[in-house]
Amino acid sequence: MATETTPIVTVHGGVERGDRRGRTIGFPTANLAVEDTPVMDGVWAGWVRRDVSVHPAAISVGTRPTFYGRVGFRLLEAHLLDFDEDIYDELVTVTLVRRLRDTVRFAGVDELVQQLHADVAATRDWAATAAPPEGDLVIPFTPLGRMILTA
Question: Tens digit of pLDDT for each residue in 38-78?
Fold first, then answer.
């Protein structure tokens, strides 16, 4: 069983451009496609490692049912706490550590935003006592710009 200091799963890949919807509702995200990887859907607390820094992040994995119902493609969306930089096309490593909740289809954007505030608060509480990962095992970036899963 994973603990706060034992990563459950680590993914690595290039940050892709998305719908930019997160930015318009106050929660910009770094998006990585996970269509064919066995990452468990849900909302996670974890870390995003860039070349120069490591950031705590609230991370959603799933099909974004509030906006796409059952037809959305799977995406990992990481909201880096206290971070506001353009990192499109940058290579990042995302470590999912604590699963916070299941993916939910909300009645609308207002309900979603309310839950996102709670997810960020839970991530902040977790990050206050969690240590960033050291030397994650990561498989190199793939030529197609997709991430590869490691456990």
Answer: 788 899 999 999 987 899 999 999 887 666 666 666 889 99
This prediction's pTM: 0.81
Residue 65: its H or E element: helix 65-68
Q: How far apart are CA 46 and CA 55, in angstroms?
A: 8
CA pair distance 17, 149, nearest whole angstrom:
20
Nearest to 22 by CA among 58, 54, 53: 58
Residue-range domains of the chain with CATH = 9-130 (2.40.30.30)
Q: How far is CA 72 from each of CA 34, 62, 83, 92, 150, rounded to the nearest angstrom? A: 12, 8, 27, 23, 24
